Amino acid sequence: MPLLKKKNTKLISWEHFNYNFGGKYSPRWWGRRVAARISDVVVVLSKADYEAWKADVKHTECLKQIYNFPCFDLESLKFDADCRTVLAVGRLEEQKGFDYLLDIWKLVESDEELTNWKLQIVGSGSLEQKLHEKEKTLGLDRVQWLPFTEHIEENYKNASIYVMTSRFEGFALVLLEAKAFGLPIVSFDIRNGPNKIVSNGVDGYIVPPFDISMFAEKLKVLIKDDKLRAHFTEDSQRNMYQFSKNKIVANWVQLLEELTE
Description:
Layout: H1 2-6, E1 12-14, H2 27-38, E2 41-44, H3 47-53, E3 63-65, E4 85-89, H4 98-109, E5 118-122, H5 128-138, E6 143-146, H6 153-157, E7 161-164, H7 173-180, E8 185-188, H8 194-197, E9 204-207, H9 212-224, H10 226-235, H11 245-259
Parallel strand pairs: 1-2, 2-3, 4-5, 4-7, 5-6, 7-8, 8-9
């Protein structure tokens, strides 16, 4: 990279992790900060990370915040009251908090009014066996496990509600994907993303981090109320323009033009 600087090549450090990822003073922590200091611009994914990086970047004019955009175009909104699937997508790793989700689903399955609903988890990872063991210990019988697929849009199309129980995220892109398909969302209010994507009480619910009981209650409210789910579906795409492909690409084009002036 120093050689590139001598050739007057512009360097962009594009951050895909949240500010605190990896732990302070770890090799990754130092590497990210070295990259930031020798780059002409640092691009971060969220407004929260923009504020956090201010202290680490000498000149704030070289710090930019640009969202990622979902891989899918906005779908025509369709509400199906007969659909009875709660969907979660992600790697089966500690970060994604599927252990929390199984505890939450235990509370849902325990409700005798909700015997016709299932939880569908799509993903693969190192915790697969451990999670299956926890499912068995909890006595769950309405959890469907599916491996990672490149055709995840079919799962979104055939779901009623999307849930996210991550411990942390760089940027919660899956929530944008869920909103593109009109799915009401229940998510923990973790740093970086959910409360910027989901409008609490409008197109989903944001729950204090790791509050299992409250998460289950909000999920059950949505499951039991067809009219509320339909209303949330109707409102799910109203704030999507700021995350649209056209707007994000335009932000990148503007940045590149500024660097080459």
